[in-house]
């Protein structure tokens, strides 16, 4: 009973931290959101273009690259962190950048995690689109860029789903952030690394509070996805 009471007290304290606007707690939330949005903003243009290019082009070794892409979706985030750590360490290929244990390394790791997710979603969506759309656009004199834009607009639900899914992965991962960020307070301490730290110290209140923020973020992202899906469904059924 005492254990249950302790957890209940920690939950109440977590709610108190959230409602009272605890500065340390909300600074961690803000840093997590900022780095995740920045990583997604960096990765998205290249990933969307790459997914489209792989969908519409046939080239030697394409199956190999698709295999690598699909395999990368299952990579443990700690493995991505290890590879990035080796590159950014003092004796690594990119050691002269001095990024290790900085927010730049954190953003780089998150961008690497987001990239294959967006590429895979976009590639699958473009391949599944009606081929007559591109043919019609070409016949009407559209340039390659205009054809790409038209197809991406047609696949906009899948693109939005890719961005939401990628954001959900990067903001909720802990392995890579811990390895290349170092969990430094005010600099690289994200919600997930803070949860791991506070739980290891037996301080459950802040961990529960941050977990609730992550849960609410996931609910909001999925609600946005369902909203977009509903809007597109209505648009498609309109006469």
What does this structure look like?
- With 239 residues, the chain is mostly helical.
- Helix content is 79%, strand content 0%.
- It has 11 helices and no strands.
- It has helices at residues 2-19, 23-56, 62-72, 77-88, 103-128, 131-139, 144-154, 156-172, 175-181, 191-200, 204-237.
- Residues 235-239 have low confidence and may be disordered.
Task: Briefly say what this structure is.
The chain has 239 residues and is mainly alpha-helical. It contains eleven helices and no strands.
What's the mean pLDDT score? 88
- Derived structural class: mainly alpha
The global form is globular
Report, as a whole number of angstroms, the end-to-end distance.
61 Å
Oligomeric state, counting identical vs distinct chains: single chain
List keywords for this structure.
239 residues; mainly alpha; 0% strand; globular; 11 helices; disordered C terminus
């Amino acid at each position: 009973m005492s254990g249950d009471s302790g957890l209940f007290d920690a939950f109440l304290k977590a709610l108190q931290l959230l409602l009272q606007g605890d500065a340390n707690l909300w600074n961690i939330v803000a840093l997590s959101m900022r780095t995740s949005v920045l990583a997604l903003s960096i990765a998205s243009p290249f990933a969307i273009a790459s997914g489209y290019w792989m969908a519409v082009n046939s080239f030697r070794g394409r199956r190999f690259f698709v295999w690598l892409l699909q395999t990368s979706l299952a990579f443990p985030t700690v493995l991505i962190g290890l590879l990035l750590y080796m590159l950014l360490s003092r004796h690594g290929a990119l050691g002269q950048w001095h990024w290790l244990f900085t927010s730049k390394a954190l953003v780089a790791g998150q961008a690497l995690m987001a990239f294959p997710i967006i590429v895979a979603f976009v590639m699958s969506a473009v391949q599944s689109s009606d081929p007559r759309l591109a043919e019609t656009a070409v016949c009407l004199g559209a340039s390659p860029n205009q054809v790409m834009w038209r197809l991406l607009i047609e696949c906009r639900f899948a693109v939005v789903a890719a961005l939401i899914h990628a954001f959900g992965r990067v903001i909720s991962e802990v392995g890579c952030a811990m390895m290349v960020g170092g969990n430094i307070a005010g600099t690289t301490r994200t919600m997930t690394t803070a949860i791991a730290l506070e739980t290891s110290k037996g301080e459950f209140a802040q961990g529960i509070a941050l977990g609730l923020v992550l849960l609410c973020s996931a609910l909001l992202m999925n609600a946005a996805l369902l909203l977009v899906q509903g809007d597109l469904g209505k648009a498609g059924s309109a006469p």
